[in-house]
Amino acid sequence: MTRGRKRKFNPNIPKHIDQNALPMGIYFEHGRWYRREPCPEGGNSRKITIATATARLSELHALMEAANGTAIRGTVAFVFEQYLDSDKFKKLGTKSKSNYERNAKQVSEYKTLLNGAPLGNLFVDKLSVPVFQLMVDAVAKTTPTKANHMLRFARRAFSWGVQRGHCKTNPGKGVSLAEERGEYKMPPHPVFKAVLKFARERGALTAHTEGSLSPYLAPAMELAYACRLRGIEVNTLTDADAYPEGILSNRRKGSLDNVTKWNKATRAAWDELAALRAAAFLRKKRPIPMRASQRFLIVNQSGTPLQKSSLDSAWQRLMDAAVEAKVITDDQRFTLHGLKHRGITDSTDKASGGHKSPQMRQRYDHEVPIVEPAAEREFSREFSRDKKKGT
Asked: What is the 3-state secondary structure (H, E, C) of the chain?
């Protein structure tokens, strides 16, 4: 970008900036860099923040070029452009392409709460988890589903960008999804079975190899479904919860505990997780905790108890991989908590989920009752019977 006439020295501009090399149309005040643009309603121009005081001169030039419609290498908009032009994107279905293009536009145009700059103009490797968490939280106030779609797309594009050298980091990792109220995301049986099979196959691959997934996901799915547990309740199971009769739940949110009887699936899932734990202890030469309540069933590769955030991240990788492998469509994604809904719906005892009130049981029970059709009845006998009773 060409320079304008020599600027008047501004003592407030950060010392690391060569003021004579600044691009035209950029200004500094109150710890921020800004440019001016005409107000859509007419009148005086308005100030648009584009960077904080820590920005380097090269970044300021890039940001001003981006403001003129050119995506600069390393920015969010640039990485998105590369992904949307990739062979991987072109192999997606028509609906997925349309959704991703919309998500890319939404994320790029989002005005950050930190400095008001469009997210697309900022450099990926300069961004942190809080930037995207603030975006998700802000969008989720009105449309949580939209917020989650924006985040999932950003994660996917950045992950692709890291692999291709377009960026070094994925600032979408570690960001919590918005709670989609009223959307339980219970999977239909064919979808549940397909993802369970996929999780088992990918979990059997050597860790950290292409396509591999966390080996604990498939058995965790089995327990979440059979025992009607939330993700956190599966994650905190210990040996103290294994009784001769079955698995003792450790329910949250005031729900009542119960014991789910052992069957072939739950016994196999429990034993599989215990074997993974034993292998991790042996590999890292960790001592086995003496107390059963301290022996968590699900552990990470180091043998330490798995954090809930790690389980959530592993679950999102499973969903992303299943969509990419065309095991399910993007619309068929479901949550680990959705398996509790699936389990309660499939149970004959609707109180098995531990809910105290019929209202909460009904929320988790999505079975549609089968009833008899209406038919004409004889009312004479009923009338006679009522008459005898004096009615």
From this structure: CCCCCCCCCCCCCCCCCCHHHCCCCCEEECCEEEEEECCCCCCCCEEEEEEECCCCHHHHHHHHHHHCCCCCCCEHHHHHHHHHCCHHHHCCCHHHHHHHHHHHHHHHHCECCCCCCEHHHCEHHHCCHHHHHHHHHHHHCCCHHHHHHHHHHHHHHHHHHHHHCCCCCCCCCCCCCCCCCCCCCCCCHHHHHHHHHHHHHHHCCCCCCCCCCCCCHHHHHHHHHHCCCCHHHHHCCEHHHECCCEEECCCCCCCCCCEEECCHHHHHHHHHHHHHHHHHHHHHCCCCCCCHHHCECCECCCCCECCHHHHHHHHHHHHHHHHHCCCCCHHHCCCCCHHHHHHHHCCCCHHHHCCCCHHHHHHHCCCCCCCCCCCCCCCHHHHHHHHHCCC
